[in-house]
Design a protein that fits this description.
about 325 residues, alpha/beta, Spore Coat Polysaccharide Biosynthesis Protein SpsA, Chain A, 2 domains, 11-stranded mixed β-sheet, about 20% strand, globular
């Protein structure tokens, strides 16, 4: 397809995504607007990912960028975002889907906000590996978001001031990459994705945006987030916690209110407790003790001694059985 000026750049990092990519790209073919490009950044796939992407070149304004394996989504996201020609960067994982009016409504919301520097997010549905619906509205469980201070912009479109967006994110990461968009200028100003993180880079970017810019909330399901056993969020605490804690520790370097600091320390402690429990289940006694100690340092008044005892008992019994 001949390339032309575009408002949007859809950035899709892909690694061994042959199982999902055709369906994902098909959802972008069905968009109600055509002033966009799709950038697939292959992260060293060993399957048919690249071939499937190239097969859509006659149906989409599409570019395929091939990179060496980095092992995490941050690098291909940065590569694609830096190469973007559109005003708005629209992240999308290689297994997620877009509703046909995803881009049209996103641009309408941005216009209602005066095309200001911001992050735009919508509600999303959660689907399984077969496309079956698991959850109709992913944002419904985030009470802090529902209670946030918002400003009416239009029917189904509200603005969260930066402070309200930041507080809501601290209470729980409500956004999903497939349901967000942001001006390329905002991506550049905040420094892009942190490639030192193996996971949590999307939350880290969203928090850095919220420190400076408002969020625009589209109260409509415009994306479909696929939850599978291959999803990063399904990995064990041993894999996930180090990067999560790194992001949360960084937040403590900001100028926070006492309540905000308490919330961050609670999240750090909760992550260390999960890590301690996971180590305990694997019989790794000293790592379990160390993780629980880190949790205690964050919130000594609410540390759970019962969880410590149970995990350590499992570790000791596991060793005896072995």
């Amino acid at each position: 397809m001949k390339r032309k000026e575009c408002r949007f750049s859809v950035v899709i990092p892909a690694y061994n995504a042959a199982k999902w990519l055709e369906e994902t790209l098909g959802s972008w073919v069905r968009q109600t607007v055509d002033d966009f490009e799709v950038i697939v950044v292959d992260d060293g796939s060993q399957d048919e990912t690249v071939a499937i992407a190239h097969a859509f070149e006659s149906r989409l304004n599409l570019r395929v960028i091939q990179e060496r394996r980095s092992g995490a989504p941050a690098h291909p996201r940065n590569v694609g975002s830096k190469a973007a020609r559109g005003e708005l960067i629209v992240p999308c994982d290689a297994d997620d889907l877009a509703a046909p009016d995803r881009l049209e409504r996103t641009y309408f919301a941005w216009e209602m906000a005066g095309q200001r520097a911001c992050l735009i997010f919508s509600d999303f549905a959660v689907i399984d590996a077969h496309g079956n619906n698991l959850k109709n509205r992913g944002l419904a469980e985030y009470s802090a978001l529902r209670l946030a201070d918002t400003q009416f912009l239009d029917v189904g479109v509200t603005l969260l001031p930066a402070s309200a967006a930041f507080d809501a994110l601290l209470a729980g990461d409500f956004h999903r990459p497939c349901a967000t968009a942001f001006p390329k200028t905002v991506f550049e100003r905040v420094g892009g994705y942190d490639e030192s993180l193996l996971n949590g880079q999307d939350f880290d970017l969203a928090v850095r945006i919220a420190r400076e810019y408002p969020f625009i909330w589209l109260h409509r399901v415009l994306s479909y987030y696929r939850s599978t056993t291959r999803s990063i969020s399904s990995r064990s605490p041993i894999e996930l916690v180090p990067s999560r804690v790194a992001v949360l520790q960084r937040l403590l370097g900001y100028s926070l209110t006492r309540k905000q600091e308490h919330t961050v320390r609670d999240w750090i402690a909760a992550n260390y407790e999960m890590l301690g429990y996971d180590y305990g289940n694997q019989g790794r006694v000293w790592q379990s003790i160390r993780a629980y100690w880190e949790a205690f340092l964050q919130r000594p008044a609410t540390c759970q001694p019962r969880g410590v005892a149970v995990s350590l008992a499992k570790a000791v019994l596991g060793r005896r059985v072995a």
